[in-house]
Every structure is written in C-alpha cells, then in structure tokens.
Specification:
The complex is a heterotrimer of chains A (540), B (404) and C (369). Chain B is an alpha/beta fold and 404 residues long. In chain B, 35% of the residues lie in helices and 31% in strands. Chain C is built from twelve helices and two strands, in the order H-H-H-H-H-H-H-H-H-E-E-H-H-H. The chains are: A alpha+beta (540), B alpha/beta (404), C mainly alpha (369).
C-alpha cells in the first residue's frame, strides 16, 4: 500500500517538474518587440506587484520610440536610477537617425558602470530581481540592464560571534558584494579568484567561491565547485543550507565546514589554501576544508604572543573534555569508583548525597536538562527579560534545588563547570555538539562507570578519525601526524617558525615565511653603548 | 540502507546498555564506608571483626541541615565468624548498607590474636580482596583488644582511624620511635625469609566505655584517648615481643626509616644538656661472610642542628662541635646496639640482615636461609660506624647566661 | 585488500601499542624472578630477529599479503591451508587478549558484571573500528599513543617520587645463572609479546615507504621491549619478587601503591583507562589481520561484511576458551607458548623465508620457477 502511494507521489512529482519546465521554456523565450506588450508581460508575470516600478519615458527631443525603465523598489539604488538613468534619458538623449536608439542608449546615455544587453525574458527577470534596472525600448527585441543594485543594507559592524580583544573590528554583512570586498581589501592580489553561481531554483541565491589560485589545491577547488553545482534545491536562505548539502558525512554531530563572520579569519584561511564559500543574504561565510583543531583556534591566537596562544589552546582542549565528560565522570565516581577519590572528599560528597532521593544519574540528568532549558530560554527570550531568567535560574537551580534536597551541591558545581566550559569553547558549532555528546557519556557512565566512559572516548576517537572534510582527514595534522604542521595545532609556534602551509590542504606551493625570520636584537651594542657612554660623560 | 544499519547498531547497543542493568553499580547512599577494621579472637576461637563506619552527615559538619554534628562521626558494628570473609558478610545482618572497604585505611589487630597465630591468615583475604587497598596501615592493639581501639572517639580528627594514621605518620616524622607499616609492606616482610615483621602498636588510655561517648570529644582533655605505643616484633608471623623507647628508635634507625628525632647528650657533666635535632639520616647495612660467619657492617650518617643547650659552651668553636658530634655518635651507637641486642634476644631479624646477605652472597644465603633467625642471626657480629654532623646551631650561637 | 595507506609513524605507533597491549598487564617472565627484566630484553632481541624474518619475507613480495605469498610459495592448497591456520591463530589470540582484559576488569573493578557483557562492549567498539578500516585504527592509534605515553610517564614519575622503588629487590642479579632466563625466553617472552608482531605482515603492504618499514618496525619492537623491561623492573622494585609473581596484575598493584602528596593516590582508574586503550588496539590488530586474511583467501570484496560474524566468533570464543582465569593462564603460558607459538611464529616463517630465498634465487623476484 505504502509503496503504491509512494510511486504515485513520484509520478505527481515528475508531472510537476514537467510543468515547471514548460514554464521555463516560456520564460526564456525572446522579448516582445512592442513596448506595451513588454510592459504587460512584466506586469502579468510579477502579478502586478506594487514594488515593481515601471516608468515610461520619452527621449529629450520627443522624437524616437518610447522607453521604459523598470526596477524593483527597495533593492535598487533609487538615487542612481534618478540621477544617472532617468535624468540622463530625459535630458541628454538626442536621437541621430543614423543609429538605432538602442545603441545610443547603451553607449552614450546610461551613465552607469555595468550595463548589459539582455535578449530573453529569463535573464531579464534575473537581473530585475537582483536589483538592476531594466531599460525597455519600443521596437527592440532586447533590453538593457543597468547595475543599480542597492537599497537598504546593514552597515559593517563588529561581528556578534567570535569577539576578540585584539584584531580588526569589521564583520561580514548580508550583502555578498560587501563581503567579497572586505576580503579583497585584505588580500590585494590578482590571484584571489572569485567564482559566482546562482543556487536555488526559486531563490536564485548568489553563491561565490573564493580562493587564491596557486595556494589552494586545484583538486579541492574542483571538488567544492562540483559539490556546489550538484545542489538542486528550491532555496538557499543561509550558508547552513549549503553546509548541509555539501558535507562529506551527514551522520555526525561535528561540523566539517567552518563558518565565520570575520573577514580576517577568512583571509587567513584562504592564505592556508582553503576555499571560502560566500552566500548572499548571510554574514556567515563557509570555509572548506575544515579540520577539527580549527574549531579550537581563535584569530586572536595569531595576533598575540605565541606562548600565550599555546597555553590558551591547551586550555580549550581541556575545556572541550570537561564539557563532554565532567558530569559523566561525576556519575562514574559516585556510583562505580568510590575508591578513586580521597576518603575526605568521598565523605564530603556522601554527606551531600545522603539527603538526595535520586540515583546519581537522575540527579545529573535533572540538573543538566534544567540547565539546557535555561540556556535555551536565555537565547530565545527578548533581551529585556533575559535578566529575569538568570535570576530564576540562579535561585531555582543554584539554591532552591539544593535546599529542597533534590540535588547535591557537588552536582551543582559539576553542572556549572560543565556549562561554563561549554560557553568557553571558541567555536559554537563544536560546543553545541559537545552538549549533545555529553548526554551519551552520562548514560555510558551510569551503566559501566569509567569503562563506559573510556569506551565512549574510543568510539568518539574512531568517529573523529573516520570523518573527512573534502577528502582531508578531520584530525590532520594530529592523526595522521604531519610534523611540519604541528606548529599550528594545540601548540602555536611563533609565526617565523611556522614555515609550511597545511600539507593536505594547500598546493605544493607551501612555504610561507622566508628563512632567518627569527627576530633578534642588533648584533653590535653600538646604539646602547653610545647612549650609556653619553650618560657617563654627562655625570662627569 | 546505511541508516537502517546505524539504527540496528544503536538498538543493539541501547539494549545492551539498558538491559545489562548496572551490575557493579553502587550508589553512595547504599554504602557503609568502613574507615577502620579491628580484628580480635574471642574465647571460642572465632574471629571478631569490628568495623568503624563513617557517618558522612556527622563528619562533614556545617552542611545542609546545620545541626548534623550532633551524632557521633562514626558508628561501630561487629561481626563474628570463622574467617574474615565470613565475619564481614555476617555483619551485614546488622547493617542497612553494604560494607565498603575501599576506604579502609587502618587495620587494627588484637595483641592476643597476634600472639596466638600468624597474622598472615588475616592478611590473605585483605590482600586478595579487590576493594581493600594494599596501602591500608596496620597497627597492633597494645594491651587491649582491637575493638577497643576502633571504638574510641577522638576530638581533633573526627574520624578515629584518621587520628591513628596521622598520629603514626607525624610521630614517625618528628620523634621516630614508631614506623608506619602498610599491608603491602607487612606481607612482603612476612614472606621474606631474610626479614621479620615489625609493626607499631597503639594504646588506649582510659576507659573504653567513656571513650565511646560523644562527651569524650567534648572535653579539653579526653578521659580516654589513643596514643602510639611500642614497636611489635614478629617472628614467623607471630608477635614475640615489644620494644620501646630508645631501643625502638635504634631499630627505626637500623631500618633506615628515621626521618627526624631529637637526641639529648651529656655535656660538661650534665645529662641531656645538649639536644641534637636530627633532620636527616641514612643507614647502610652490608652483610659479608667472614670465616663462614656473617658479619654485619652498619654505617649510619646523621645530620642535624643544635636545638637546646642548657650549659654554657662555645658553640662558635668548630672543635667543640666536633666533640659534641662524638657524643652524639656514641649515643646513636648505643641505641642501635640496644636494638640489636633486643632483636637477637627475640631471635627475630626485623632489620633485614638476611636480605642483605642474600643480595651480597646468594650461595651462602641459600645454606643459612632455613636457620637464619634461630642460629645465624643471633650470632652475627656487627660493626657499627656512626657519623653525625652538626650543621647549624639555630638562631643563637652561645647560650645565654643568667646574671652574667 | 582495501585502499589504505599506513605511514611509517602509524606503523610505529601500532606496533608499540600492540606489544604493550596485554603484556604490560600480566606478570610477564616472572619465572625469571628478579631477572625478569633481563628475560624480557633477551626475548626482545629474539623478537627483533623474528620481525626481521617476516619483513624479509614481505620484501620478496612487497605487494602481496601473507595468504597470497603463502599460496605462491607453497602452492594453492597447502598455502591456503596454512593461511587458514594463521587466521585461526589470529582469532584465537584476539579472543585470548580479550579474555585477559575481561578478567582484569572483572577482578578489580566490575566484580558482579558478567564477563560476556564486558567483552561484548569492547568487541562492539572494535568491530566498529575495523569497519571503518585499518587507516582509522592507525589514526586513533596516533591519537591515543600520546595519551598513553603521557600517562605512562606521569605514572613513572609518581612512582619515582613516592619513593617506592627499592633497587635492592632486583638483586642479586643472575642468582641461578643464565638457565632460568634462557628457559623463560624460549618458552615465553620471545613469543609473547614480541613474536606476535607477525600479524603486522598483514599491514606491511599498505606502507607508504616499504624500505624504511623494517627499521621503524625494529625500532618499535626494541622500544616496546625496553618499556616492558622497565615496567617489570619497576614492578619488582616496588612489590618485590614474591608479590610480583603472586599478583595477577602486578602493574595494578604497583599503581595502587602510589601515594604522593596526600591526593595523588588511588590511581587504579588510570590504569584501567590505559589498559582498555592498549587492549583495544591489540585485539583490533589481531582481528583486522584475521578479517583481511579471510577476505583475501575467499576473495571477498567487502571485508567489512565479515566483521560482525567474525567478531561474534571471537567474542564467544573469549568467553568459552577457559572456565576460570587460572585455566586461561595455564593455557596461555604453558600450552600456547610451548607448542603453538614456536611453530607458527618461528618455524613456519623461517621455512617460508627459506623457500622464498630458493625460489627467488633461481627465478626473478616473485616469478617462481
């Protein structure tokens, strides 16, 4: 039965597809010649939407065919349309009879940078809907499109995620052009290549891939290109759509593409040979291929001192483990391995647990779930109510639950540490997967103690080792070990010691710093000595 | 297809996890944490075990509920049986929780029991058990039953077993008449033919029945209290005698376990006029065969400061210090000789001379092994060389003199 | 054969983890009393020789797995039969190691849990790993190797600082001459664990650098031998000869004796963690060798399909091979190492090497007559 209905559905789908195709054929047919027909057709096609402005004009001297300017209000730059299009058509255009009006408009009248000729409806709608202005001429079976993209957009602000103390303050916006410009400004090199494509059968979203020719590996660029081309979907509303459609492995909680709001981060990654995928309409730019350790790095690591960055990276790895296994370890210790903690501590914990009616697992689950609810509420609530949540949370979870004897204070400490550790993970994508995995570990710990936990860790390791991002093993350069690239993993060597680009990611052109870049004081002491001598003489 | 397999795997794993149902799981609230185990023998010849169980709520004071410290920090239950395992299991009839031995840091053995039979019968189940830690410390209840030692409440350290362990540790570190011996050490010494067991004893002053009550801990001077006793010497696993005072300290020196101590020496005719605070000590024991007889050479090196000088002496003068050093060496040598004499009298080689011989001369040892304690050890001659050094004299050099 | 590449470092890591696997658990070479460490070292040198034999044999046929070159050397039927014997040996060894591990866990931490469950959980994880391929196993090896070494070094430092080691326990050296050591080497430490490295012939064809593989392999065996010898010496130094020999798991007892700074004590769990990891690798490698050989002999295109049935066989074998731990040990230390191992780990490889040498002297490499 179900099979039958499925096949019927399939048939229906096929039919729909056919219809759509027919429509497409209709669309892509040539433009009508009469201006009135053209205008009528546009009106019909767009359902007379009121934001589509159709302005009929006459040329300056009143001779010649009628002209119409069509644009979508709001996504086009009305000032440019007024000043350089309508104004110049009305005031500047004269018609010498020798040449068709169309060419005159193209060459002399339209005072805008990017003007294209369009011959079919399909392209006409594409440019119209992306904010360009269409100039229709009576009698011509083609149209002009002038680039007047614009309209309201957010200005460049400091990114909300990935905040740094030191580093540039600009972040991506929703506009793809602004975003590419932010990257171009940082890498002023003709080898920074940009490819554009439109993805989404309905939304026709602009998606660009950006890479540095000669540094990025050609195979990886090709792979990215192919995977993007393969996408068949109605809409791309955020780069997350793309991410889900081009991942190497779907069944994992770990992100295999990196996303960021920071242009400096994208520039840095491009210079390592990675490929950026920029999607119109979102400030989040995807970077591929991504490796696990990237999610524990912050751009600031590279701006600050190497030793401190190394210490911080160790801390972040520790944080990751804490956020995964802290509650599980607590459960394991209190239900299986009481022998492993010092007597005094055991007695202290036992005293707290004395009043709690639940087994440790339930206790931990109550607290963890309560905390997750609080956190979710904190994110979704309007900012004004946020403080109320924290009060309720602190009171209910922090104190009342303990006093009511539902959970023990030690459990509260464990949950708090876990939560803070989770917040401190630099990449949200990994932090959120740690949140989920944690529950698995808690169950494992509740059934088999540390044996369960260690088995969980082994499974996690196998899983991570089997992941790939665009063919690059997820745990490079730790497993497989690439010594030359270990300088930028958990440890960060000073920039002058990081000589190579990531081996599996960048092309053969992998040297990044010259020899003898290690800074040192001047060899002679002349400068210092002369000052000191002068000082001595002054004293005399 | 892939999803199906994944789900299958998940279902199997989930079933195993859930159905298997946590066999080895033990919730904290179901455990009776045994802090100390005392073992005696009753008149019928059965073992009596006394378990000191921690009452967590009454130890970790000031927690929720506030008035938790009303009751005693520990409760004691006893069990009787023909074997240690039996007595422990039988004791569960008197207890609402499961006895948990992983935190048993103290084992007290009754003096009578230790004299009557080899303590290795007691140590076997403890050593074999997975919960029991081999680092648990062993003491002998000197002059009382093990159960009495376990039952008495103590004031500063709320858990009595902690008090006993810490007392032993600190007295070992500062005075040096006692040693802490854990189960593993004890078993090693029992097993070795070339070394006999020596264990510290613990004494009870006052009345047990008073010591059991909370009032005992509410006095500034508890009417019954526990203190470190003498050193018990074993032979073939049985208690053969006690040594204490300077003899005990001599033994500790010979065992190379002395950390710090204080020696008083006679100076300018006054006894104990100068006190030598020993801070570091090293003993080397070598046993060699000489004319078919073992000869022990003992080298002791001691370092320390002057802690007290009650007679006027010029402590600035290195020559004077040298003379004092000679006195100290004499004193240490005397203590060692006393210890040796006592051990020989007991025919028990607690110092491990046999092991030393085994290392230096395996063939000779093979012959003497069986009769070492009874024949060869008591006859062994010992050369004792003591080197004592005075490093510093404290914040003052010459002692002050009244009305000078 | 799957399309995998194993780097030299990965080979090194796998050999190290494999050798340490279960050997670090049991009282290895304890019959040699205080000279156990010496017996291990001597066994290690023998192990180096055995490894050399296997590698030399592999170099004659650098593209082939052992079952394939066995068939080439001995003819189709005899070669297949021999390869089949090795599969059984690998599976049996995997089951033995799994049993060792399960017994360890049951004896000291999970007394009430059935052996089957404990083994089954680990086996499921191993099956999962093998399904992902040998490359993934090697990569997890790289990850955990750091971790294990970190734990080992920390443990070593802790033991050193807690002042437990009494070097006197290691004396007198060579009390009964060389004969006890020789006996232990020939009946035990040569094969277990060093001779067992024969499983790696299944992995050699994947090596990225086949020339250097020998050096790395020998180095790994040497280093693991030294590590084992140090471990055993520490065990004896801490526990004494008698207690080491009487302990089911001497290293556990050693670690349990650590008491540093009042809170660095009761470290058994770390022992358990590192054991689980080591055993996981040892069983994985045995299991992988068995699966891959089977796939080669029976020409199975997807070896991953074999993992569930063969894994279940190993699992059930691990539970049923012995009724008690004593019986299990007796089988392992007396029967296996005196009858099975010398034959399969020494005699046959030597024989094969001889045949390969003769064949290749007359014909071209791999050409036969």
């Amino acid at each position: 039965m179900s099979l039958f209905s499925l096949s019927r559905k399939m048939k229906k789908l096929k039919l729909q597809k056919k219809n759509a195709q027919q429509q497409n054929d209709q669309l892509s047919k040539a433009i009508h010649s009469s201006l009135q027909d053209q205008i009528n057709y546009i009106k019909e096609k767009t359902g007379n939407s009121i934001d589509i402005v159709i302005r009929k004009l006459q040329l300056k001297d009143g001779k010649g065919p009628d002209v119409a300017v069509v644009f979508v209000e709001g996504i086009s730059d009305s000032k440019a349309i007024n000043d350089f299009l309508i104004e110049s058509i009305i005031n500047k255009s004269t018609v010498p009879s020798s040449r068709p009006i169309f060419e005159i408009l193209f060459e002399k009248v339209v005072a805008l940078g990017d003007v294209k000729e369009i011959t079919d409806w399909d392209n006409l709608y594409l440019s119209l809907m992306s904010g360009e202005s269409i100039i229709l001429v009576d009698g011509a079976q083609k149209a002009l499109s002038a680039s007047t993209r614009g309209g309201e957009q957010r200005s460049i602000e400091e990114p909300g995620s990935q905040v740094t103390v030191r580093g540039p303050r600009d972040g991506f916006t929703e506009n793809i052009r602004t975003n590419t410009s932010l990257i171009r400004k940082r890498i002023q090199n003709p080898n920074l290549w940009l490819e554009n494509m439109k993805i989404g059968s309905v939304t026709k979203t602009d998606v660009s891939i950006m890479y540095i020719k000669g540094i990025a590996k050609d195979e990886i660029v090709e792979e990215v290109r192919n995977r993007l081309k393969r996408i068949e979907i109605d809409s791309i509303l955020e780069s997350g759509y793309i991410e889900q459609l081009i991942e190497d492995q779907a069944f994992t909680t770990f992100p295999t593409l990196y996303h960021t709001e920071r242009p400096d981060m994208v520039a840095g990654n491009l210079l390592e040979g990675r490929v950026a995928i920029i999607v119109n309409g979102t400030p989040f730019v995807l970077i591929a291929p991504a490796v696990f350790i990237q999610f524990f790095q912050s751009v600031e690591d590279y701006y600050g001192r190497a030793d401190i960055a190394t210490a911080l990276r160790f801390l972040r790895i520790l944080i990751f483990f804490i956020s995964i296994i802290a509650p599980a370890a607590y459960i394991a210790v209190t239900t299986f391995h009481q022998e492993m903690i010092p007597t005094q501590l055991l007695v202290a914990i036992a005293a707290q647990r004395e009043a709690v009616p639940f087994p440790a697992l339930v206790e931990a689950l109550i607290m963890e779930v309560a905390f997750e609810i609080l956190r979710e509420a904190g994110i979704r609530m309007p900012r004004a109510v946020g403080s109320a949540i924290s009060i309720v949370g602190a009171l209910v979870i922090g104190q009342a639950a303990v006093q009511a004897g539902i959970v023990s204070p030690a459990m509260v400490i464990v949950v708090a540490i876990t939560a803070i550790a989770n917040f401190a993970t630099p990449a949200f994508a990994v932090a959120i997967s740690a949140r989920l995995i944690r529950f698995g570990f808690m169950f494992a710990a509740a059934t088999f103690g540390f044996y369960g936990i260690i088995l969980g860790i082994i499974i996690l390791a196998i899983h991570l080792c089997s992941l790939r991002s665009f063919g690059v093993p997820y745990l490079t350069p730790m497993a497989p070990l690439i010594l030359a690239n270990m300088g930028d993993t958990i440890i960060r060597l000073p920039l002058w010691a990081q000589k190579k680009r990531p081996a599996l990611i960048s092309s053969d052109n992998s040297n990044r710093v010259g020899d003898h870049q290690k800074p040192s004081p001047p060899e002679g002491r002349g400068m210092v000595n002369s000052v000191l001598e002068k000082g001595d003489q002054d004293e005399n | 297809m892939k999803i199906k397999k994944f789900l299958f795997f998940l279902v199997i794993l989930g079933n195993i996890l859930l159905l298997s149902g946590c066999w080895s799981k033990k919730e904290l609230t179901d455990l009776a944490i045994v802090a100390a185990l005392g073992i005696d023998k009753n008149e019928e010849g059965r073992y009596v075990g006394t378990m000191q169980i921690i009452n967590p709520g009454n130890v970790a004071g000031g927690l929720q509920g506030g008035g938790g410290s009303q009751g005693p920090p520990v409760s004691v239950i006893t069990g009787t049986g023909d074997s240690i395992v039996e007595l422990s299991r039988r004791a569960s009839r008197k207890l609402s929780r499961r006895l948990y031995y992983a935190h048993t840091n103290l084992v007290v053995i009754g003096e009578d029991l230790a004299k009557e039979e080899s303590i290795s019968t007691i140590l076997d189940p403890l050593e074999r058990d997975a919960q029991f830690r081999s680092t648990a410390i062993i003491v002998i209840a000197q002059g009382s039953k093990a159960s009495d030692i376990v039952k008495v409440l103590t004031a500063i350290d709320k858990i009595p077993s902690n008090k006993i362990i810490k007392t032993l540790k600190f007295t070992e570190k500062t005075w040096g008449e006692n040693i802490t011996v854990n189960m593993q050490d004890a078993v090693k010494m029992l097993v070795s033919p070339g070394k006999e067991l020596a264990v510290s004893g613990f004494r009870l002053s006052g009345d047990v029945d008073k010591g059991k009550k909370m009032e005992n801990t509410q006095e500034t001077e508890p009417s019954s209290s526990l203190y470190a006793g003498s050193l018990a010497i074993f032979k073939n696993g049985k208690l053969t005698g006690w040594i204490d005072g300077e003899t005990a300290r001599g033994s500790v020196i010979l065992l190379d376990k002395l950390n710090a101590s204080a020696f008083g020496v006679k100076w300018e005719g006054k006894d104990e006029a100068i006190i030598y605070e020993l801070i570091r000590q090293k003993t080397n024991v070598m046993v060699k065969m000489e004319k078919g007889k073992p000869r022990v050479s003992i080298e002791v090196q001691a370092e320390g400061n002057i802690g007290e000088a009650s007679v006027s002496t010029d402590l600035n003068n290195p020559d004077v210090l040298l003379k004092i050093e000679k006195e100290i060496e004499k004193k240490i040598k005397k203590e060692i000789t006393m210890a040796l004499k006592q051990a020989k009298k007991n025919k028990s080689d607690i110092f491990g001379f046999g092991d030393a011989l085994h290392r230096s001369n395996p063939e000779a040892w093979k012959k003497m092994k069986s009769e070492w304690n009874d024949v060869y050890f008591p006859e062994a001659k010992a050369d004792i060389v003591v080197d004592a050094f005075i490093r510093r004299t404290g914040l003052r050099n010459i002692p002050h003199q009244v009305n000078k | 054969m799957e399309k995998a590449k194993i780097s030299l470092y990965q080979l090194f890591v796998l050999i190290m983890l494999f050798e340490l696997g279960s050997a670090i658990l049991v009282p290895l070479a304890s019959d040699a009393k205080q000279d156990a460490w010496m017996a291990i070292l001597v066994g290690m040198f023998g192990g180096l020789f055995l490894f050399w034999i296997n590698y030399r044999l592999f170099l004659y046929y650098p593209e082939l797995t052992p079952p394939e070159y066995m068939q080439k050397l001995l003819g189709k039927i005899l070669g297949t039969f021999l390869a089949f014997c090795y599969i059984i040996l690998f599976m049996y060894s995997a089951a033995r190691v799994l049993r060792d591990f399960g017994e360890m866990l049951l004896t000291f931490a999970y007394l009430e849990t059935p052996l089957f469950i404990v083994n089954a959980l680990l086996m499921l994880v191993i099956i999962y790993a093998i399904r992902k391929g040998i490359e993934v196993v090697a990569r997890t090896g790289e990850l955990f190797f750091f971790f294990i070494y970190f734990l080992a070094i920390t443990g070593f430092i802790l033991i050193l600082f807690s002042g437990l080691i009494d070097m006197n326990n290691l004396k007198p050296i060579l009390e009964q001459g060389i004969s006890p050591i020789a006996r232990v080497v020939l009946t035990q430490s040569l094969y277990f664990p060093f001779g067992e490295a024969i499983v790696f012939s299944m992995i050699f064809p994947y090596l990225t650098n086949k020339k250097k593989g020998k050096k790395i392999g020998l180095f790994a065996i040497g280093l693991s031998g030294i590590n084992l010898a140090i471990t055993m010496a520490i065990n004896i130094g801490v526990l004494g000869v008698d207690l080491t020999a009487r302990s089911q798991f001497p290293l556990l007892s050693t670690i349990q004796s650590i008491q540093v700074a009042e809170f660095l004590e009761r470290l058994d769990v770390f022992f358990m963690i590192s054991t689980v990891i080591c055993i996981y690798f040892k069983v994985s490698i045995y299991f992988y060798a068995a699966v891959a050989s089977t796939a080669v002999i029976f020409k199975i295109k997807e070896p991953s399909k074999l993992t569930y049935p063969m894994g279940m066989v190993i699992l059930f074998m691990s539970v049923t091979i012995a009724s008690s731990y004593a019986e299990h040990l007796k089988e392992g230390l007396k029967f296996i190492t005196t009858y099975l191992h010398p034959f399969f780990l020494m005699v046959i490889p030597l024989l094969l090497l001889g045949i390969a040498f003769l064949k290749n002297r007359k014909g071209g490499p791999g050409g036969g007559f």
